[in-house]
């Protein structure tokens, strides 16, 4: 099963400590070697982004920062794992690194199973 892990936190948390990034790099390397991590990345602040929105039949572009955002997506990782339980265990390990190397940081890792073409309704 394929899972997406989405790291969320308040905007303006600052840059992660070097020790945390080194620990995450090591954890990521282990996942790649084991064949379970498919990809990952950190995301910049919303000030450098944009949103493209479709609403009422109209497409608009909104440049960041997104002042209405209470929390932002700070990073993501994709995994191929055997179960949701395995995904939760991985997220716990990841959050333990934050607890150890970035005291006071607050956020969450959301785990979502990814869908593929096989999960879509059959066409008539």
Shape: flat
What is the first-to-last residue Cα distance? 26 Å
By CATH reckoning, the class would read Alpha Beta
- Total E-strand runs: 6
Q: What is the quaternary state of this protein?
A: single chain
Our estimate of the beta-strand percent is 25-35%
Q: Under CATH, the topology is which?
A: Alpha-Beta Plaits
**Helix share bin:** 25-40%
- Poorly predicted runs of 5 or more residues: none
In spatial order, strands of the major sheet run: 2-5-1-6
What's the short story on this structure?
The chain has 124 residues and is of the alpha+beta class. The chain is built from two helices and six strands; from the N terminus they run βαββββαβ.
Give a written overview of the molecule.
28% of the residues lie in helices and 34% in strands. It is α+β, with helices and mostly antiparallel strands and 124 residues long. It has one domain: Dimeric alpha+beta barrel (Alpha-Beta Plaits, 2-Layer Sandwich). Strands 2-5-1-6 form a four-stranded antiparallel β-sheet. It starts with a strand and ends in an 11-residue tail after the last strand.
Question: How is this fold's topology laid out?
Answer:
Elements: E1 2-9, H1 18-34, E2 37-42, E3 50-55, E4 58-63, E5 72-80, H2 84-101, E6 107-113
Antiparallel strand pairs: 1-5, 1-6, 2-5, 3-4
Helix pairs in contact: 1-2
């Amino acid at each position: 099963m394929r899972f997406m892990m989405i790291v969320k936190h308040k905007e303006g948390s600052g840059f992660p400590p070097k020790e945390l990034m080194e620990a995450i790099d090591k954890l990521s390397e282990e996942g790649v070697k084991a064949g379970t991590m498919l990809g990952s990345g950190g995301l910049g602040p919303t000030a450098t982004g944009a949103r493209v929105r479709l609403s009422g039949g109209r497409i608009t572009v909104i440049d960041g920062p997104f002042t209405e955002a209470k929390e932002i997506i700070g990073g993501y990782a994709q995994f191929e794992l055997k179960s949701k339980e395995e995904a939760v265990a991985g997220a716990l390990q990841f959050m333990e690194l934050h607890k150890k190397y970035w005291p006071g940081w607050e956020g969450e890792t959301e785990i979502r199973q990814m869908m593929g073409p096989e999960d879509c309704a059959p066409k008539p």
